[in-house]
Amino acid sequence: MIQANNITKKYGKAQVLNIESLEIPKGQSFGLVGNNGAGKTTFFNMLLDLIRPTSGEIINNTVVVNKSEEWKTFTSSFIDESFLIGYLTPDEYFDFIGDLRGMNKADVKSFLSQFDEFFNDEIIGKKKYLRDLSKGNQKKAGIVGAMMGNPKVVILDEPFANLDPTTQIRLKAMIKKLTEDKEITVLVSSHDLTHVTEVCERIVVLDKGNVVKDIATSQETLTELESYFSA
Amino acid sequence: MISHFLNLEWKQFFRSASFGKNVGIKILMAFFAIIILINFLFLGAGGFFILKKEFPDKDPFVLVNQFMIFMVISDLIFRYLMQKIPVMDIKPMLALPIKKNKLVNYVLTKSVFSFFNFGSLVLYIPFAIVLIMEGYTVAGVVSWTFFMIMLAVCLNFTNFLINKNNIALGVLVALLGGLWLAFKYELGNVTGFFGDLFYAVYENPLLSIIGVIFAGILYYLNFKQLSNVIYLDGAVKTENQEVNTSDLSFVDRLGSVAPFIKNDMRLIWRNKRTKTVFLMSFFFLLFGLMFFTMEGYKDKEVMQLYGAIFVTAGFSMNYGQFVPAWDSEHYRMLMTQNLSYRKFLESKWYLMIVMTVILFVLCTPYLYFGIHKYLLIVAGFFFNLGFTPLIMLYMGAFNKKRIELSSGGLTNTQGTSAAQFLVMIPVLVLPIIVYAVVNHFLGFNAAIIAIALIGVVSLLLKNPIMSFIEKKYQEKKYATIHGFKQQD
Fold it and tell me: Fewer beta carbons under 10 A from the terminal one: N or C of chain A?
């Protein structure tokens, strides 16, 4: 589904990303971990054509992302709060995303109804603008927005941060359900090793822009990661 | 401790967003600040002589005292509307080991040095100097000036006491109106009474102590009030904006641009800065009045033409010049969505077109100034309908300055760069050149037709031009994303 070939990103002399080859097959739940500055967000931004690679290319379902915009029809994402339109209410935001993804009002409504529990009655129908919501609730709205319109690829940067324990557990279930049928590819980055090993069937560790580990998740993965990061 | 606070003040001032701006903007802002200051100085120093000239049989100083009460109440109303106690500044310090009393004192002391109080200093001191030069007693003038400055401080603290209390505002407005009516219809001797009060301070310098006493009492009252509410759910609360949702489904008829137009309408109405821009465009309607009637302007054809173009250009110029920076905060999100630049840009275009038409309709009263002037406005309208929105959108492709919507109104200059001044040139210069040339060779009628024609032709060529603009935006995409991420 996603193929990265020889991508590098340099700012002046500093190299922030250098991935020779990385292939993510369709339907995989893919986890990206690494310390601050490892290049996780840079990689996601590149995948979304928000920054250009210094060299190399990323192919998303046969589309070269910086050549054509076709990938936008089947890719959705939530990177951070700047992906929300602060002056809209959550309802209006979902309607807007729905409009862009070819859903009418009724579609949006029935889609959202499955998230009642996730939203915990704090998002929908509340007279508040997105910019006035708490960090956690902003995140919830953004994540659900990224699941609208039957995307084939879902990209979530640090989805667990700022969420309360109940929501973290629900989110894990949601991500697992997404990849259940092996139709939707999900890319997640996280600082929480437990969550990411629980949700992802494959984990890649980045360090200073390089892939240093590429693990198929198993019983021992968490220990392996913990010992890597404590070294 | 005080040195800590002073240090913070210093850093806050020099590291504030307005200091991070580029040199051009700094110079421009300094320029405006100096102009305002000079105006105040001039008013302070020249006020005496102006009054003397206008009312030769009266003592200007007595006159000033007589009307001082109106100044005082207006000042208080103005403060009520504009001035806020700088209490949010202490939020980061609430959890630090600093006594609450100190924080309250800090906030209150800080408020004394606000711009609102500084203004009266610039006004009264030059006035006082002139008074002394004109032979008024030094002791009297000094104590009067001192009293006035204390009065400003009193107003400063009074404002915080009545803050957010609409009844207080009502009382003030009623008081102002009532006193004015009483003065106008000579019910009682309003000006005489208050005039004597203020004049008494001049005659009896010791009375200025009253100002200090009042300031002290008010400070104490503020101190007590504030000490009780320095909590996160009290005075130090971030305000959430009241949501206003209105049904915009009538826009849906416009088809695939509808979602963007709805967003843009909400954008304009729900953010301070965009609201200011929106209301500003109606203010531009008055430019015609200014250019058509003012001495020195009304016989210059070029000025007339400026007026005629400004009246319908207000929205396109003020709003259009910051496209796409209005969406800078969530620009990255838009770029990952399944949307075309075309739709995004077209919604801005629609808005500008609709607003230009509305402004044009509102221009109908200008018929009063004769058909000649009105035809100029019509020509300007066509120009603004076809040409202005497209050039604004085109220039927007080079716009890389972030705007944070939630902050500031009039004084927020985020997103301003040299490009904003450049963009004005074609809109302001092109019609003048066309007018001058065609008018010279073919006469007035041909000239205004030519100006209108620029607009009509641009309108007819809208689709190819839009495609060209769209391409420019695509080329600049990464630079724009990068630029919009930079916070200043």
Answer: C
